[in-house]
Amino acid sequence: MFHKPYSFFLVILLSSLSWLQCSPSDSSSTSGSNAFSPEISASDIYSHIEFLASDSLQGRESGTEFEALASNYIIQKFEEFGVQPKGDDGTFLQAFTINTARLINPHATDNAEGERRVANNVVGWIPGRSNTNEYVVIGAHYDHLGYGSFGSLYRGDTPRIHNGADDNASGTAGLLELAHYFSEHPPADNILLLAFSGEEMGLLGSAHYVEEPTVGLSQAKAMINLDMIGRMSDTNLLIFGVGTTPKWSELAMAVNEDSLSLNLVKDGTGASDHTSFYYKNIPVLHYFTDTHSDYHRPSDDLAYIEVEGQELVVNHVARMVDALGSVSKDELPFVEAPGEQRQSMTLSGPTLGVLPDYGFEGVGMRITGTNPGQPAQNAGLKSGDIIVALGDTPLEDIYGYMGALNTLEVGQKTTITIIRDGVEQTLELQL
Ligand SMILES: [Zn+2]
Predict the structure, then answer these.
(1) Distance CA 1, CA 167 (A)
(2) SS3 for 365?
(3) Tens-of-pLDDT digits for all 431 residues of the chain?
(4) Which of 69, 92, 77, 72 shows the shortest CA–CA distance to 34?
(5) Cα of 241 to ligand 1 centre, how many Å?
(6) Residue 398 host element (H or E)
(7) Is 388 helix (H, G, I), strand (E, B) or coil?
(8) How far is the centre of ligand 1, averaged over its atoms, from the C-alpha of 201 (Å)?
(9) Nearest CA-CA partner of 383 in 393, 370, 394
């Protein structure tokens, strides 16, 4: 997921550390053998993430030899599974140029002085059963932050490898599992598989793809993005984008055979690659198992991936793709659902240091954690608290919270009103 400087994601900080008690799957990964199952399996997911998030890939920074190690792995698997190339000139790769000036200043133009690097998307195709030229896009970015010279929330003095196991080796593993599954069990629709690079530098790979698509975008029924799907320790799954066509919610519920607790969020834009397709008027979904304290830090490692949970997430996606086969493109009209407030919301005022619960739909803003030493924790806030007012300003939702914060000053004393275990209480708050 792309970390927008000064944006909403700055307020995401430590949540509970309870998952530290959970051990990774006791997968009997047999590296060296190519015994991947055509079914979607936790052990295959583990193997893919184990490779992609290993130190030898040094954080998969776009436009480096380590990005190439990752793209070679994806291509090798696509070839093993029988996926067809759909990139430049009959290959799996689609090259684009990155101007690294943008890493220092995200608003830099392409003409700005900076090192130019070539990065690559990986593009594959699986023909569907029915005789149609329509297709469903499944996408996941495979790049990450390298040593964290940009986009990192790590503040240590020594640069460290950011393995990005959840962000987004998990989604890449999901893409590979779906590639294998649909190669063996073709759905009605054609499938376009897109592994993006340049995501962490600002959705660059997907932005390039939609400007120079290798298959006409007008035939795309929908785009499904997998970004950070490896941390489902319970059954809570967030799906963004359900407002982008009326049928999404119904379909998401209809294929929910594993009875996951679905948090369906309307917004079609966000800090990941589905946004590029949304702006081309294509219905989108973004599967997401929520953020965590290792987000954009060196500690986003394999040890914390919930492979059993991810198997359930990827199976939900597979059933969704199959279900789309019995829905015509006309039945999936694009509807605007930009999540404008979230998109344009910038923090100019103080921060509280809380982790918002994106799935919460009640009045106020529920939090799933606080950042040590920050105002919210100093005031005594805890995971599960619902913030309903800042000073005298009542908060309807997460956007109201951001708006209210922007009217306050760093250093100011005010109050914060919360609901904890059903009881409203007002606490002193030092910003
Ligand atoms: Zn990210």
Answers:
(1) 6
(2) strand
(3) 876 543 333 333 323 323 333 333 333 444 444 579 999 999 999 999 999 999 999 999 999 999 999 999 999 999 999 999 999 999 999 999 998 876 766 566 667 777 889 999 999 999 999 989 999 999 999 999 999 988 898 888 899 999 999 999 999 999 999 999 999 999 999 999 999 999 999 899 999 999 999 999 999 999 999 999 999 989 999 999 999 999 999 999 999 999 999 999 999 998 899 999 999 999 999 999 998 889 999 999 999 999 999 999 999 999 999 999 999 999 999 999 987 544 334 445 678 888 777 667 778 888 877 777 889 989 999 888 999 999 888 888 776 777 787 778 888 899 999 999 999 999 999 98
(4) 77
(5) 18
(6) helix 398-406
(7) strand
(8) 9
(9) 370
426 in the same domain as 359: yes
Q: Are 199 and 205 in contact (CB under 8 A)?
A: yes
Co-location of 58 and 96 in the same domain: yes
- Assign residue 69 the CATH number of its domain: 3.40.630.10
37 lies in some domain: yes
CA dist 56 and 267 (Å) reads 36
Give the distance (Å) from ligand 1 centre to CA of residue 219.
29
CATH code, domain with 356: 2.30.42.10
Assess whether 363 and 328 both reside in one domain: no
**Alpha-carbon gap, residue 358 to 365, rounded angstroms:** 9
Tell me how far the alpha carbon of residue 196 lies from the centroid of ligand 1, in angstroms.
12
Domain stops at, among 309, 340, 371 = 340
Distance from the alpha carbon of residue 149 to the mean position of ligand 1, in angstroms? 13
Do 170 and 189 lie in a common domain? yes
199 Cα: distance to centroid of ligand 1 (angstroms): 8
Same domain, 318 and 381: no
Domain closes at, from 340, 356, 391: 340
- Write the DSSP assignment of 265-332 as a string of letters: E----SSSTHHHHHTTT--EEEEE----TTTTSTT--GGG--HHHHHHHHHHHHHHHHHHTTS-GGGS
Looking at the domain assignment, is residue 1 inside a domain?
A: no
Domain that includes residue 418, residue range: 348-430
Same domain, 354 and 335: no
Ligand 1: centre distance to CA 167 (Å) = 5
Same domain, yes or no, for 79 and 221? Answer: yes
- On whether residue 3 sits in a domain, the answer given is no
**Pair 319, 367 in one domain:** no
